């Protein structure tokens, strides 16, 4: 596969010849080297995208839609080889990686359908004197900064609507997982995405790269998925040119279990919410707030479910949890667990770094965690489930909302009215009510508070990549 930068429809090395080493987190071995872009490469990519975007914006929506539809079909034809690439550079189990490709491809099929339905309005002015026409042209060139936890899906979720709306794109994939983005753009080009429209420029110099790209006059928007810390920094830098922003940032999801919940269903949902994609999702259940009467029973069942998790290399048959992304991630998770235990949490299972090559952490359940413990306030991004028992619903809601994050929440109860009422009180952009997964290309993905700005997916997602223009008429 290609391992160079993709700029203006051509594969080439970065201006200073630097390379990025890509590591297999299951072994710690370097498995590939990829060209690293400089700020000058980023500027060139913006220029190329600008040129191509002018023509693309004139392409009929139906024809843009057909290209997206072919992207969906091409990705599904290559589901297996794309999934293998994800396992190599990210480490997640092969079944999760195949699921990620189907999920990613679906953003193209969904947005192929949305592309021909970008609607404006014609309204009569309140005075009755004239009509007002409102329509939605593309933004221009969009910078996409994508994370390592879903190397395909987080790019597809941005790319498909951006292209459908008529934009050009410059992508900076994570330096941890650049291979999937490079292979994806190779395939999407074969599917009909015009040369130059989408440019992929991995880099080792993220700050300088972003400063140069965001300074290009054709760039009008930044779409970012990653940590709140980096998101804040990109927002600050975007302010200089008043760029439009969509930010999908960190989470700290409460997973609330009432004593009337179906505990088996709650544990099944908990395992999905906590462990999907090797427990490295922003939507992951981060704190299990469990009504005191069922806290022990829930903890015991969750512990058994964690015991059944098969940790290992994502290619091995039966593995359900792969490694974490790098050594730092393992150290961060271990630090949070040690601090929680130091503050009185009980280890029901796990609690240690696995002694083997690669970056593995034991599936862990912590009982009786204090709501003040750092683990209740940090995004864990690892296979650790801290259980915090509660007795009073109002106090529990305060605890659930005692965070600057507001991406996801989960509520388990057999009382639907109570479930809905509690869901509405949780300050999060997405709630799983008796469900452990919320993600769907047809649903608006995004957070409240410091978890983000804007939404991806659903009918809203494509409008994020559009301007709104109002034309006053004498008609
Ligand atoms: C994320 O963790 O950033 C995305 C999770 C998802 O789309 O399910």
Description:
The chain is 39% helix and 21% strand. By secondary structure, it is α/β, with parallel strands linked by helices. The strands form six sheets. Strands 14-15-16-13-12-18-19 form a seven-stranded mixed β-sheet, sandwiched between helices. It has a six-stranded mixed β-sheet with strand order 9-8-7-10-11-21, sandwiched between helices. Strands 5-6-22 form a three-stranded antiparallel β-sheet, with no helix packed on it. It is globular and about 65 Å long. The protein starts with a strand and ends with a strand. Succinic acid binds next to helix 5.
Bound molecules: succinic acid
Tally of contiguous helical segments: 14
Care to count the β-strands? 22
Query: Strand order across the biggest sheet?
Result: 14-15-16-13-12-18-19
Molecular shape: globular
State the end-to-end CA separation: 57 Å
Strand content: 15-25%
User: Can you give the helix content as a percent range?
Assistant: 25-40%
Oligomer: single chain
Kindly provide the radius of gyration, computed on alpha-carbon positions and rounded to a whole number of angstroms. Answer: 23 Å
The average pLDDT is 98
Structural class: alpha/beta
**Uncertain parts:** none
For the sheet with most strands, the description reads: 7 strands, mixed
């Amino acid at each position: 596969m290609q391992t160079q930068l993709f700029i203006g429809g051509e594969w080439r090395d970065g201006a200073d010849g630097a390379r990025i080493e890509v590591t297999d987190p299951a072994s710690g071995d370097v498995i590939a080297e990829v060209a690293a872009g400089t700020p000058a490469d980023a500027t060139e990519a913006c220029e190329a995208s600008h040129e191509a975007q002018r023509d693309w914006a004139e392409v009929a929506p139906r024809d843009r839609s057909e290209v997206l539809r072919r992207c969906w079909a091409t990705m599904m034809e290559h589901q297996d080889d794309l999934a293998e690439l994800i396992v190599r550079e990210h480490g997640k189990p092969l079944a999760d990686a195949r699921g990620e490709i189907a999920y990613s491809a679906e953003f193209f099929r969904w947005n192929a359908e949305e592309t021909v339905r970008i609607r404006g309005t014609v309204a009569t002015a309140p005075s009755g004197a004239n009509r007002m026409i409102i329509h939605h042209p593309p933004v221009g060139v969009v910078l996409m900064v994508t994370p390592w936890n879903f190397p395909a899906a987080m790019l597809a979720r941005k790319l498909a609507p951006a292209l459908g709306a008529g934009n050009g794109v410059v992508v900076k994939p994570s330096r941890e997982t650049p291979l999937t983005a490079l292979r994806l753009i190779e395939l999407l080009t074969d599917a009909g995405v015009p040369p130059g429209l989408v440019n992929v420029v991995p880099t080792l110099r993220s700050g300088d790269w972003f400063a140069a790209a965001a300074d290009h006059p054709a760039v009008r928007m930044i779409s970012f998925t990653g940590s709140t810390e980096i998101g804040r920094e990109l927002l600050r830098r975007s302010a200089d040119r008043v760029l439009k922003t969509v930010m999908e940032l960190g989470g700290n999801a409460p997973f609330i279990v009432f004593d009337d919940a179906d505990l088996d269903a709650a544990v099944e949902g908990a395992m999905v919410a906590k462990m999907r994609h090797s427990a490295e999702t922003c939507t992951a259940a981060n704190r299990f707030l469990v009504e005191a009467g069922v806290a022990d029973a829930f903890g015991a069942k969750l512990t058994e479910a964690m015991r059944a998790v098969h940790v290992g290399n994502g290619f091995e048959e039966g593995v359900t949890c792969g490694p974490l992304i790098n050594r730092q991630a393992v150290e961060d998770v271990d630090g949070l667990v040690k601090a929680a235990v130091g503050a009185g949490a009980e280890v029901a299972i796990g609690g240690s770094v696995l002694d083997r090559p690669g970056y593995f952490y034991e599936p862990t359940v912590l009982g009786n965690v204090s709501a003040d413990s750092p683990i209740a306030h940090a995004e864990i991004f690892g296979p650790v489930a801290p259980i915090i028992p509660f007795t009073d619903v109002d106090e529990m809601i305060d605890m659930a909302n005692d965070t600057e994050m507001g991406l996801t929440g989960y509520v388990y109860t057999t009382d639907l009215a109570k479930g809905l009422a509690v869901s509405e009180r949780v300050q999060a952009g997405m709630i799983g009510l008796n469900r452990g997964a919320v993600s769907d290309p047809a649903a608006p993905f995004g957070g409240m508070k410091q978890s983000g700005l804007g939404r991806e997916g659903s009918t809203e997602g494509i409008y994020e990549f559009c301007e709104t223009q109002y034309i006053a008429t004498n008609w």
